[in-house]
Known about the structure:
Layout: E1 6-11, H1 14-24, E2 27-34, E3 40-46, E4 54-59, H2 63-68, E5 77-82, H3 86-95, E6 99-100, E7 105-107, E8 110-116, E9 122-128
Parallel strand pairs: 1-4, 5-9
Antiparallel strand pairs: 2-3, 3-4, 6-8, 7-8, 8-9
Amino acid sequence: MSHIPLVTLVVRDYDEAIVFYRDALGFALVEDTDRGDGSRWVVVRPRGAGEGAGLLLARAKDGAQRASVGAQTAGRVGFFLHTEDFAADHARMSAAGVRFLEEPRHETYGSVAVFEDLYGNRWDLLQPA
């Protein structure tokens, strides 16, 4: 085993999730394939990540899945987005309407700020030291 190519993120709607990850976070839409049964195979990945980990955006299919949207990590930071230019990405994301839960912090391990995606999942924007 060499790497984890995808992590599933349960979403309410494919198109609203694509718009958020592509336009607000700056991810690339890698694939959007109709599976023929009303579902789609939708993959987004941070630009410049090459074949690094991406998100499989999976639309919730039932009540239990809908209840997990935005709470997949029980309110903890569950996703980590590394950047090479924290200030520029923080400013761009803020201007795009991304909700940061705190002011940027400068820790021994790097610059960081917690933000929420459109469903309330918590992420770290992090520029490692």
